[in-house]
What we know:
Blueprint: E1 3-4, E2 9-12, H1 18-31, H2 43-51, E3 61-65, E4 72-80, E5 90-97, H3 106-118, E6 125-131, H4 135-143, E7 147-158, E8 161-171
Parallel strand pairs: 5-6
Antiparallel strand pairs: 1-2, 2-3, 3-4, 4-5, 6-8, 7-8
Helix pairs in contact: 1-2
Protein name: GNAT family N-acetyltransferase
Keywords: Acyltransferase, Transferase
Pfam families: Acetyltransf_4
Amino acid sequence: MSTERTDVQVRPGVEGDLVSLTALYNHYVRETAFTFDTEIFTPEERRPWLLSHPVDGPHRLMVAVTPDSQEILGYATSSPYRAKPAYTTSVETTVYVSPHAGRRGVGTLLYEALFEALSGEDLHRAYAGIAQPNEASTRLHERFGFQYVGTYREVGRKFGRYWDVAWHEKPL
C-alpha cells in the first residue's frame, strides 16, 4: 500500500529505514518533550521497536519519504496500548514529522495511510497521548476524529520540569 503526492510517498517502514528513523526520533528525544525518552538511541537499540511493527497486523509503521531520494520526512505507528490481553483491540498511535518537513501535510498523509492499513484489523479504539502544549498534534488528531478524554497532570519529567499529557481516543 502506498499513498502518494508528487513530493511525498507513504509506504510501510523497512529495515533499511532504521538509521534515518532513529535520527528523526533522536531529534525529538533531544529537543522536545513530545516523547518522554530522555536518552538518544543507537540504531541497534531501536531495532526491536522497528521489528515490532511488521507490514501487516495491528501494529504498523508507515513512513513518508521523498519519491526520488527516499529521504524520511516522518513516520506514524500503531503500537500496543498496554500489554495485558484484554487491550489487544486497542492501539496507541503516534506521528513524528521531520522538523524541515512540517506544515506540508506529511502528518495527514501518514495518518491517512495508517488508518487505511488498520481498517481491516480487529481493532476497536485508537488512543493518542499528546504531551502539552502541542497544538499542531492536537489539531491533527482532531481532524482524524480523535476526541479529548482527559489529561494526566505532570505525568512526565523532562528538561527539569513536569509535563502534562492530554489523551484522545478514536473509534476504529
